[in-house]
Amino acid sequence: MASLLLEGGVAGHMNHLYDNPNLTFRKMKEIMAAASDGQIEGTEKTDGQNLQLSFDVNTNTARAARNKGNIKDGGLDAAALAQKFGGRGALEDAFNDAFAAFEEAVNKMSQEERVEIFGPNVNIYYNAEVQDPRAANLINYDLPTLTIHRVGHREYNRETGSATDKDVTNNAQKLSDALDVVQGEREEGKFKVQMNAIRNLEALSDDVALNDAYDRLDSALTDAGISDNQTVGEYLVSRIAEMIDAQVPGLSDETKIVMMKRIFKEKGSNIRNVVATIPKEDEDKIAGVRNMVQNASLLKFQAIAPIEEIVHDFSVEMLKGVYSAFILDNDAEVVRLRAEVEKAIRAIEGSDSNEAIEILTKQMSKLKDVDNVSTAAEGFVFDYDDVTYKFTGNFAPVNQILGLFKYGRGNVPPLQKLDEQEGGRTVAVVPGAFKPPHKGHMQMVQHYADLADRVVVMISPLARKTPSGKDISFDVSKKIWNIYLRDAGLEDKVTVVRSPVNSPVSATYQFVENSDDKPELAQPGDTVIPGCSTKGGDEDRFKANFEKYAREGVTISDPLSCAFVAPPEALSARDFRAALDDGAGLERFIPQGVDPDDVLDVLGVERKPEAIDEVKDTTYTLNVTYSSGKVMTVHKVGDDAMKRALIRISKRPMVKSVDVSPPPKGMLNKKVDEISTMAGGSVEGYAVGNKNKRSIIREEDPEDEAVEEVLNYLLGKGALS
User: How far apart are CA 25 and CA 214, in angstroms?
Assistant: First the structure.
């Protein structure tokens, strides 16, 4: 009976591992091992609008096809394509613009190249994906792109509309090479036309997921009486045979064979053939067989379910390290997707539809938890032994849940309107430059993670430089944050995003305002804890500003009541940058439990181990007295850091005096108007009544002052008098 599944198949179809009936379980394990070791090469699977594209070399016009009839007719030109998608708004615009971009790009190639790539008579079509922010499906891509895939290309017989057996891989490579040349000549802002880039699937950090998959596979095979050397097809046959015996016992071998042929839709098989093998008087058996055959799809789904679940869970682990090449901020898109899924789940659970809840339950058995939405890439496509496979992880259940929520299914109407009330979370928003983040920053985030349901760290997009001129970029900062959060086990609770404006504090105002009603930003019912600077007693003003901008229903928590009481040693990103140039004493900036080499590798810095024990900088305590009578305590390590802090503090109009302990050599406690000179040189233009002080929220602020002020205040909160 296994041979029933080993015939035919759709050439070029992208299989899950469990979809290929000819795949042995030994080979399945081999593929998993190769993936786990980072030995799988392939391309990102994208979530766009599919289109088959070719080119008519006789008329120099692009052609598109959606079915066999289009191919026989020589494809759709621009006008026909526009008519096909006319009246469909953004989708129409996306297809038409992508089509025009493709035609423009190909027309820049030579006639010889066009004939070689597309054939003399619109013979070769290429599998393409239109990704346009205007016509998004599940994933929001940032830039309009026409992506030519690496698989799915075909030469067709124009008379029949059927694919030939010709391998067009070389033609696709020539198209890729030609597009690389002409793409650079295209006008910025237009649709980008490109081949999907080849990349390696990132290796897993350990064998936990692989060994788990192996153990579960072995258990499933044992239950089915199948060995490693047998195939997925044989597993299915064995499982369905068990189901037949359980549901309709006593059937003859002949009946079971003919029945299996019908279940797997062997050509020429039908229900009459099956019933003819059963005596007419066995009405119960006939009814039972009819029921099973009529539900053949469900039978096959139930039979393969144990293997599908194993492959799914392994795929989820593999895709956690995959970032979409078509999204500027993958982590922000993951946050958005999670928020959308949470909203959909609440709406479905709050509905009166048993059908909707049943669908949700089925999909949640795969997804398990919203936190498992861990990548903005739809999946990964790769070839192994000349068969094309895909890992899609949690894209499928997420797509099903959101589709049910937005569009309904069967008797279930769209449920989107049922979830008007969003929110109820406590969200801490921590803004800063974080160039680079250090131990103090991480301690603060850990503190907020204990207080809030979710923490959002907003990083300024502006780079900072070390004294020697080495850039510390947003990407570097984010990579370091990811290391800290990974090692602290906070990846699922803390989200690190790029501030949409240069000032991350301004971005927090946008977060609570949420004028575009984005699900990843503040929602009615949410309580937001802002990271806020005192700037000379300005905490009340900042709280007032947050409340001013906050959308209706959003509560702003008192930043003082949520402040972090830190140990005496306070650090600054400025000091960290200075230490990077020297390479010594870097460990004091790294959180406990984090391998310093992991961080320094990201920074491209080689430390000097022999110098580590030589760092014996004094920790200074600066008690800053404001004219209001309030006192703020700031801690600085090292003479230079202390002096820079004094200069910075001395510029504040509300500062009355600063006490430094222990007193630096040659320095006693001084009033603020004496400090700048004592600290290392006159500060030109300083006056207590300075009215030109920089605002913490100005976008043009070139320095790291926002996070310095926020952090130093929060770290010193316990010493406020």
Answer: 10
